[in-house]
# Entry
Amino acid sequence: MDTLPAGTLMQRAAAGLARRCAQLLTDRFGAVYARRVLLLVGAGDNGGDALYAGARLAARGVAVRALLLDPDRAHAGGLAALRAAGGSTVAAAPGVVDLILDGVVGIGGKGGLRPTAASVVSAAASSTASDGGRPILVAVDVPSGVDPDTGEVPGEAVTADVTVTFGCLKPGLLVGAGATRAGLVDLVDIGLSPAVPPVLRVADREDIRGWWPVAGRESDKYTRGVVGVATGSSTYSGAAVLSVAGASAGPAGMVRYAGSAADYVRQRYPSVIVTESVERAGRVQAWVCGSGLGTDERAAGELRTVLAAPVPVCLDADALSLLADGRMQDLLRERSAPTVVTPHDREFTRLAGFPPGGDRVASALGLANQLNVTVLLKGDRTVVASPDREVWVNPTGTAALASGGTGDVLSGLLAALLAGGLSGVRAAVAAAYAHGMAGRAAAEGGPVTSTDVAAALRSSVAAVLA
Ligand SMILES: NC(=O)C1=CN([C@@H]2O[C@H](COP(=O)(O)OP(=O)(O)OC[C@H]3O[C@@H](n4cnc5c(N)ncnc54)[C@H](O)[C@@H]3O)[C@@H](O)[C@H]2O)[C@@H](O)CC1
# Structure
């Protein structure tokens, strides 16, 4: 991976770690000097990072104590450096601690924390800071107990305020339960050049701005893309309105609605061309199908017609329930135009035949491969995976989006991006990003409904693209 000596890398890691700890102490307590830091030190190099960082803090006047989980195997050089800088070891967590550095295990950890480590972590976490609050908890590289590759938390694990990670962002810090345990993630460049391209990418605003189709002087409604919306029903007319709202906030030049909530849609969106069925919709460059459609014969027929169209398709909600039928899945696999599915966990289970489990990246990749589709697996950190093994994670998710109907808005927007010419992966990543921003904006005004998310979407898209 790299030709630099291990000691050099560890010193760089420790320097970055100490810098971040000093900053956190200064932000909260006004100064670094005389603050109290407890190092939780395991038997590997992760503990070595903590010890060297502790030495650097001790040299700045911090009272640094190290609790060694396995004293005979603690990193010898790190321990010597700590002692030389004035730090010491303790057998149990002191009562007053301002900052805890979790160096129990890093990328070498397997399974949840072992019982001794778990009880040391929990005792330390219940100590009190000198201002009466709870200590700041900083994880070294990975919160101990979190699987660095998958984000699974199979047992006891550290919950960090900040994780200072080295060289590259580990998937376990970005997805699944691990993302929640990691808190804020700081990446320290230690001069490693990864030998393989990143397997997991985190979308940022620049990506979205670079991809989002923008109308130019030569554009017309067809070149901007026509999005077809086959959602809703007389029972679930709201789903139709929400997906049309999502589609209307995208870059498409025209929105066509096809379904039995046509009158309802026409009243709210005079610009939308409405018709009763997919077959009669006319020219469409991408479809969204599923939300509120129902699962009866008529709905199944509409889905078949959508799947037979040689254009990109986004499938959600009832379309995913209908796809639990193996014959429908065959129609999916036969498609040559891009298909995106947007399941939450229960829909994933219906589609795949088993729940997503703790490794959400592997789960999304597996379903993408199984069905030959791009999968947007919804969650706190939504994962997008393609059949050719491209994986993205969306950082803008918010609990505000855990509300009925928000998925209808998302899939509408996603289809508009497909109609605008984006690939399945980019459309899914960009839609998740903008949708997350809209959820956050809507939450500023109190409890959020999907109508609020739909209302916030246009200005959120504008803010992302500004
Ligand atoms: N690889 C590199 O190039 C660099 C690695 N560095 C550090 O080195 C770490 C990896 O070090 P190691 O490979 O020594 O491994 P770790 O320090 O992550 O863990 C190994 C030790 O933890 C114990 N352990 C494993 N699972 C456990 C569990 N569930 N509960 C309690 N104890 C458990 C093992 O018995 C073993 O002694 C990285 O996370 C990072 O902090 C940095 O110094 C920078 C450079």
